[in-house]
Each structure stands twice: as C-alpha cells, then as structure tokens.
Amino acid sequence: MTPNTNTLSDTIHSEYPHTFVSDIEQEIAPFATKTSTQEENLVHSENSILDEIVQSEYKYGFVSDIEQEIAPKGLSEDVVRMISAKKEEPAWMLEWRLSAYRHWLTMKEPTWSNVHYPQIDFNDISYYAAPKPKKDAPKSLDEIDPELREVFNKLGIPLVEQERISGIAVDAVLDSVSVATTFKKKLYDMGVIFCSMSEAIREYPELVQKYLGSVVPVSDNFYSALNSAVFSDGSFCFIPKGVRCPMELSTYFRINAKDTGQFERTLIVAEESSYVSYLEGCTAPMRDENQLHAAVVEIVALDNAEVKYSTVQNWYPGDKEGKGGIYNFVTKRGLCAGVNSKISWTQVETGSAITWKYPSVILKGDNSIGEFYSVAVTNNFQQADTGTKMYHIGKNTKSRIVSKGISAGKSQNSYRGLVKINKSADNARNFSQCDSLLIGDRCGAHTFPYIEAGNKNATIEHEATTSKIGEDILFYCNQRGIPTEEAIALIVNGYCKEVMNQLPMEFAVEAQRLLAVSLEGSVG
Amino acid sequence: MLNINNLHASIEDKQILKGINLQVNPGEVHAIMGPNGSGKSTLASILAGREDYTVTDGNVLFKGNELLEMSPEERAQSGIFLAFQYPVEIPGVSTANFLKTALNEVRKSRGEEPLDAMDFLKIMKQKAALLELDHSFLQRSLNEGFSGGEKKRNEIFQMAMLEPTLAILDETDSGLDIDALKIVANGVNALRNDHNSFIVVTHYQRLLNYIVPDFVHVLYKGKIVRSGGKELAMELEEIGYDWIKEEMAENI
C-alpha cells in the first residue's frame, strides 16, 4: 500500500472498506415544479399540515422526437467494437475499451451502499444512441440540426455564442454524443482545449492516452469498468501552463432516448499554475422505466494548479409513487498531482431516483488542498448515498468537507465519507461538517463517516448535526405570514448557504430556485 | 375588531374551551388570566390557527371575516400576531432575513411592492432601538442559542416590525427578569394606539403593572368566569385563584 503514481489504484479503491447491506423498501418518486398560489392556499385545510402534498411536475420531463440511431440492447465485445467504430477511434482506444470490458465481466455489482433497487439487467440496456446525422457533421454552430438546437433551447441552453452567456462556454451532450461546443475558437486561441471526448481522442491522442484512466483506473470499480468499456461522449478540457481560463466551462448532459444508458466520460487536465472553473448540468425525460447513468470524471491538477468543479444534478427522480427515474452511479475523482494544487468539488444533487456518488480528491502533492461542498436533496422515494473521499498522501495537505443532506417525503439520504491519512502525510489536516435536515417524519438521514489516520501529526475534526423542520417551525413561520412552501425554501436556503456560496453566481441562483422547486410538496 | 362567540374546542376528545365569549374593540387591551390548565394558551393558539385543536362549536369574527376559516398565514397577513410562549429556533436563518421574508409576504398579500434592502434596514434599526436590541443580535440565526429573555424580546421586536392590528401575547412575561420585563412592556406600550388591540395572556399580575389593561378576564375550566377592569387583576394578585375554585365548586 505504498503510494506512488503507478500504484494509486492499489491504494485508492473506489469500494468502501466496509460493506453494507440495506433492506430499505425500494421505490422511487416525484419531484416538483412551481405550483400556483391557489394550490398553496389549499394546503391547510385537512388533517395536520405534514400530511399534505402539493402536486407538482418535473419541468424537464419532455421527450424530443429526434431521429436517432440506437444500438440493439445488450453488451458484448461486438457492441464495444461497434461503439469504437462509430466514433472512428484509433486501435489503442479500442484495445483500452476491450480490456475494460473483459475486466468488467469478472466484477460483481456492488451492494454495500445504503440504497435498494431491483437487479439491473445489463443486457436490457442499449449502450449507444445518437441523433442521426442529416448530412455531414456540422462544421460550425450555425449548421446544427434545428431540432437539436430546439431541444437545448427548451432546456434554457442556447447553442449560440450570445452576449448574454458570453461568460460560459457550453458543450452539449445528447444521449451518447456531443452535439455542439460553443466558444471553441476563442478558447483555442488561449491554448485552452475544450471539446467533446470523441473529438479529443481523434485530435489530441497523446494527451488523452497520457491522462485517461490515470485517476480512475479501468479496474477501479464495477461502474467505472463498465464506463471505460462503453463510454460514449463527454467533455475534455485542457488548460495549459500558466493560463487562467477566461470563462466558465460547462457541459450540459441530456438523456433523451428510451432504454438507453448514458455513460459519459469527462477528463480535465490543469497544467502548472493554471486555473479553471467547470460546471456540469443534467436533465432527462420522464419515463416509467429506470435509466442508468454511469459517468466517470477525472481531474488532474499539476503544480500550483486549481480546478473548481460544480455540478447541479437534476436528473428525473421518478414520479410520486417511485416509478421511473435515473440511476445515477458515478465515479468522480481528482488528483492533486502537483505541489500547492487545489481541487474543489461543489455539488447540488436534487434529481435521480438513486444517487451513488463520491467525488474524491487524492492529495498527492505537498501542500495540496481538496474540498467537497455538497447539498443532497431527496424527496418522495428518492435515495441518495453520497459523500466524498479525501486521501492525504503529501505533506501539509488539507481537506475540507461540508455536506448538507436534506430528506423529505419517504426518501432516504446517506452521507458516506472517508478521510484517509497516509503515513507519509505529515501535518495533514481535515475538517468535516456533516449536517442532516429532515422535513416531516417519514424520511431518513444516515451518516457513515470513516476516518483512517496513519500519521500521528494529523489533525482531523468532524462535526455533525441533525435538525428537523417540524410542524412547530412551520406554524411559527405561517403565523408570521410566511406560507409553508416559502418557509421551507427560506429554511433550506439558510441551511445550505455555506455550500451555495461556493457556486458561480449564475449557478447559485439557479440552484437556489431548483432547491425550492425540488422540495415543493415535500411536506408529506 | 374581534368577536368570539360561544367558542368550544377540544384536543384529542378532551374539551378545553367550553363556551368563550369575548369582544375586543380597536385600541383596547384585554388581559386574560387564570390558573394553569384553564385554557388560556389554547385560546391564543386557536386564534392564531394552530391545527392541534378541534373547534366543536361557536365562531370567531375578525374584522367581519370568519377567522376560523382562514389559514394561519392568512390570519397573520390580515393582522393577527401571536407572541409565542415557546418561540422556535431556526438555524441558518437570521432574524433579519426571517423578518424581511415575513414582512414582504404580508406586503405581497396586500398587493404592495416588497421593501428594498435599504428601507427594510431603516425600519429594522428604528424598531430594534425600541426593544434595546443590538444590531449583531439581528444577524444571528433566529432564536438559536438565545436566552429565554432574548427570545421574548425578539418576539416583541417581530411584533413591532409587522405592526399587527391584533397582538396576542402568550405568557410573554414567563421567564423574564424585571429589567427584561420592563423593556418588553415599554415596547408594547410604544406600539399601543387607537387602531390596534392586544390580548395579554398571563398567569401573574406583575406584567399588568407595566402594560395596563382596559379589561381583565378570568378564565377557569374553559370559561370566562369573571370580567372587570384593571382592579380585578390586583384583587387576584392579593387573594390568588383559590376563591374562584371554591366559588365554582359551590355552584356545582
């Protein structure tokens, strides 16, 4: 277990050292969008207020009728070859995929998380879906299929380089492929590469070969192996030495096709003394079937580099009875490879039927810093098992964890975190704050913090609180003239302030609104 | 302003209020006194709209509207304020932010524009001075870690901010030392005018030395058994509640 770059995979298992078998009744459920005030006024008529549910709908649940090319269901070497061929990949990439596939076949689906769902039939999923090309691939943004453009317009992501969004470059991914990337030229002039992963494999093979799988090895865990075999698209960002990326880079993921899985792969490399802030957003149509989303995100930060990665996850969470919704099984990991480097994860998780996700940081470089700020909301029958892992290897490494779980309805919300201080990590410091907020009395909050300290000089602090928004608090707010929904939004936003402050401005406003919307009708 | 007619209410099949009649006119201060368990706090809670109670008979008119048919926030927006006996704590939400939200919801219900931050701050400073509250106090999470006295002062401060037409003070004096009691009473007195009314629920006469009531009512076993002027409170202070119990026992 000696840490060095080549054997990182030995040190860093994605699997938790302890296994958990849970027997929580599985079911997944709804979500909310703005309801009218008339409905809010109805809220107080019968029984206790905590028994009432406001009907609301998921706003991004539409299905777009786009002509698509979908691979037959099932997974085999042939399917892996087909995906690679579709993307016109070089031989080394195909080999990489095939070795991942072969490894995946030897692995077992993990069962230790505190979530419950029926066995997934991996042969009942289609592993590739792409909008059918109408002609040759679009050469510029103007040539994008208008129907595709319309999909993203509907989501509020215009694929044009407008003044209004000039501070953000967008890579838009629909099902298995990237359909457009804005501001490519402007970024390229500064040496910043921001493109789809497929394009990166074709255009920058040396970079991809050097870094792909260097943080999350193929064999890391069941879903990362699966992703490595069949990943379809995602974003690639490369920030050269000394460059401060002048705009936010953002990828917007959209699942559209039925019965498909989305397996995106994102790789961010920040060279010496560079800086980038990256945003990720996601939505999916409302469907009765569960859909699998198994992404892998890798970040590498060299000496003095800083990467800020923000996610607002709003996959379809299923309906009110727990039918449908996305299974979000994601591996995200950053490597602070260089001295004084910093990687910061901020996530606002509101969607998905099941979330299984632990954005982690390997603090290898001396004086490097890892941060994790999280708000995870579960409502109705949603389940979330999320948290982080901080591996302290270098000297004077620091990590900070701020996790805010919010459970409402009949949902289950778990924080799971590991702070591991290696023998080599002299003077390592960690601070963890894990708070849980319960809304109503039918939901659950669970905290599983693991601490492994292998160095006597380490300073580790852990704080945790659990609070509840009960009828007393709601009545108090009502008595001051604040209706129940507004009261919950007020309390929740106060509770999450510390995390929200980490988000870029435009996102923070969006995330605040999303929080309020997710919890609408949560008092039930 | 407020008309309570033959109000009967129960909780879990236990009858608490057994026919309350009370009329409160603009500008009046009514004190409701009585021994523990007589139904004083129940009456305050029902007027504010707490749902734990079932009204089994009678009705309440507030400014001509059926009060019992309104939601708690509608009651608040139309001018009813309850100073809680046990105010709740809300972590992460400052008193200032809480009140700004409340004030703007009340304004919204009246079709008024929300107050901008500057105007709000101005009003807040002015009212905070009335209750001798420090500015830093208003930036702290609502009631979190506040002493009993601070919580009660905060209640009256909120009342000053929201300017209700009918304020119900539910045992606001309990847990207050004499200095805090004076501050609270001064706050209430400063807000008294010809257009608003107060119902002061209290066990002790002490508070009424500072907030002088126009009427005093004695509540016993869910009924108002005696009403009078402020002298009634003095009388009760001297002789206690035992005589009422005896008198009532004789009548049975």
Structure, explained:
- The complex is a heterodimer of chains A (524) and B (252).
- Mean pLDDT of chain A is 78; it is low at 1-11, 13-56 and 162-166.
- Chain A has 524 residues and is α/β, with parallel strands linked by helices.
- Chain A has helices at residues 8-11, 37-42, 77-86, 91-105, 146-154, 184-189, 197-203, 205-211, 222-230, 471-479, 484-500, 505-518, and strands spanning 68-70, 129-131, 168-174, 177-181, 193-196, 235-239, 248-254, 265-270, 275-283, 290-293, 296-301, 306-313, 325-336, 342-349, 354-357, 360-363, 369-378, 383-392, 398-407, 412-421, 429-439, 444-453, 459-469.
- In chain A, helix 3 packs antiparallel against helix 4 (91-105).
- Chain B has 252 residues and is of the alpha/beta class.
- The relative contact order of chain B is 0.18.
- Chain B starts with a strand and ends with a helix.
- Chain B has helices at residues 40-48, 72-77, 95-109, 117-130, 135-139, 148-162, 178-191, 230-239, 242-251, and strands at 2-11, 14-24, 29-33, 54-62, 65-66, 80-83, 90-94, 141-142, 166-170, 197-201, 215-220, 223-228.
- Chain B is globular, with a radius of gyration of 18 Å.
- Chain B has nine helices and twelve strands.
- In chain B, helix 3 (95-109) runs parallel beside helix 6 (148-162) and helix 6 runs parallel beside helix 7.
- The model of chain B has no long low-confidence stretch (mean pLDDT 91).
Properties at a glance:
heterodimer; A: 524 residues; alpha/beta; eleven-stranded mixed sheet; ten-stranded mixed sheet; 22% helix; B: alpha/beta; six-stranded mixed sheet; four-stranded antiparallel sheet; 9 helices
Break the fold down into its secondary structure elements and pairings.
The complex is a heterodimer of chains A (524) and B (252).
Chain A: H1 8-11, H2 37-42, E1 68-70, H3 77-86, H4 91-105, E2 129-131, H5 146-154, E3 168-174, E4 177-181, H6 184-189, E5 193-196, H7 197-203, H8 205-211, H9 222-230, E6 235-239, E7 248-254, E8 265-270, E9 275-283, E10 290-293, E11 296-301, E12 306-313, E13 325-336, E14 342-349, E15 354-357, E16 360-363, E17 369-378, E18 383-392, E19 398-407, E20 412-421, E21 429-439, E22 444-453, E23 459-469, H10 471-479, H11 484-500, H12 505-518
Helix pairs in contact in A: 3-4, 4-9, 7-8, 11-12
Chain B: E1 2-11, E2 14-24, E3 29-33, H1 40-48, E4 54-62, E5 65-66, H2 72-77, E6 80-83, E7 90-94, H3 95-109, H4 117-130, H5 135-139, E8 141-142, H6 148-162, E9 166-170, H7 178-191, E10 197-201, E11 215-220, E12 223-228, H8 230-239, H9 242-251
Parallel strand pairs in B: 3-10, 3-11, 6-9, 9-10
Antiparallel strand pairs in B: 1-2, 1-4, 4-5, 7-8, 11-12
